[in-house]
Design brief:
The chain is mostly helical and 77 residues long. 74% of the residues lie in helices and 0% in strands. The relative contact order is 0.06. The mean pLDDT is 95.
Length: 77
């Protein structure tokens, strides 16, 4: 994996907190920021999945599909 250098600006308090986390966890500041971005991406993807599950769950309930047997019957139609 190749790295791309970027310059970012952080509010002073957030920068201090990130530096404290880096020291406490024995990581570089870059690693702490990478971890935070990965966590944010994972949370965003989880929220998208939950929204999709909710949408298709509602669609299934509208068609009376409440169990796997209901789904099997529906798919055989």
């Amino acid at each position: 994996m190749s790295a791309v250098k970027k310059t970012i600006s952080l509010p002073a308090e957030l920068a201090r907190e990130a530096e404290e986390i880096a020291r406490a966890e024995g990581k570089t500041l870059s690693a702490v920021i990478q971890d935070a971005l990965r966590a944010a991406r994972a949370m965003r993807l989880k929220a998208e999945l939950e929204n999709l599950q909710g949408f298709w769950g509602r669609k299934a309930r509208e068609k009376g599909i409440l169990t796997e047997k209901d789904l099997e019957r529906y798919l055989q139609q």
